[in-house]
Amino acid sequence: MIEHKVLGQQPAMRFGLTGIDSIKQNIQVVATTFAGTVPLDRAFGISGDVMDRPYQVAQALLINELMAAITEFEPRAEVISIEFETSTEEAEQGKLVPIIKFVEKEVVQ
Prior knowledge:
With 109 residues, the chain is α+β, with helices and mostly antiparallel strands. The protein has helices at residues 19-31, 55-73, 88-93; strands at residues 3-7, 77-85, 97-104. The chain has a three-stranded antiparallel sheet with strand order 1-3-2, covered by helices on one side. It is globular. The two termini are 18 Å apart.
């Protein structure tokens, strides 16, 4: 199985994607959407409870939120790991940029 990775940053929306490109974009959308902000699917996304927490607590909460949300909203992907892109500037600003590693699940028909 091929391991893929995406940054948890807002993607430029591209329409008509298929295969792995579609999965990558969907993961990025899930990772950057707060629950309650999508009008017809209020459960879609991650909880905003990770905001304004100590850095290590926020990391742990965000990993949990991302794992649950990706499992629920992008069933074609299996998350392998979530790490964080760390730079001094981002850490000082309290920014968490997740790096989500996943494999495409086998589709049984």
